[in-house]
Amino acid sequence: MTPNEMEELLDLLDRHGGRLENWPAEARAKAEAWRQDSAVAARQIAAMRRVEAALAASHPGVPDEANALAARAMQEHQNNPQRMLARRISWGVAGALALVAGVYVGSLPRLDAAPSDIVAAALDQSGGRDVW
Questions:
Q1: Exposure winner among 14, 37, 81, 110, fewest CB in 10 A?
Q2: Domain presence at residue 43
Q3: 17: domain range?
Q4: Is residue 83 part of a domain?
Q5: Model-level pTM greater than 0.90?
């Protein structure tokens, strides 16, 4: 097996996984031939299958009770139109307040002072340039 073929095999393993039966027909035929001809290729395919099996075993199962509880909670939330209306109204009010605040800030007169002058005036407590 050439280095280019090994690189192609590793790319195919990354793309399609270690179960050759799930690969596209043309790629599967190549992989089967490489597995028959090369012990290194066979070890790479076997290693990918072991990694996939370990990953599958590492996922904790969700108990059926948790799924049923989540389904009930979502159904209860969807069946409560007053709650949905209250949420939509509160978001509408928040959006309107943000719009009013933006219009107000946009209508303020521009200061001709540089930002550093504004900061200096804000920090100056002598009274001569008090901004408070």
A1: 110
A2: yes
A3: 3-58
A4: no
A5: no
